[in-house]
Amino acid sequence: MSVATARLEARISAELHALIKRAAALQGRTVTDFVVSTVQDAARRAIEESEVIRLTLSDQEHFAQALLSPPPAAPALERAFARRRKLLITE
Q1: What's the Rg (C-alpha) of the chain?
Q2: What does the entry give for GO biological process (predicted)?
Q3: Which candidate, 19, 13, 41, 14, places its Cα nearest to that of 31?
Q4: Tens digit of each residue's pLDDT (9 = 90 or more) over 7-50
Q5: CA dihedral 12, 13, 15, 20 (to 10 degrees)
Q6: I need a surface site. Which of 1, 42, 50, 62 has the fewest CB within 10 A?
């Protein structure tokens, strides 16, 4: 079973290349392995930071309380539900 691959190229300064090469050597890895794993970690962190909402303990308690005991629906929401019910019944 073969795994599909893609190529990634980037132009970087000689100084950055030397820095990356040194860091990879310190970890006993190839430059490619070092760059791929580092970029993969950074990509996962960026996605997690974008998709995960972190709440304080107090905010977690307020959120749970709102789910367990939601406030009554506002009149506009009640009217919207009534219109929706009417549309679903007539179709």
Answers
A1: 26
A2: regulation of DNA-templated transcription
A3: 19
A4: 999 999 999 999 999 999 999 999 999 999 999 999 999 999 99
A5: 10
A6: 1
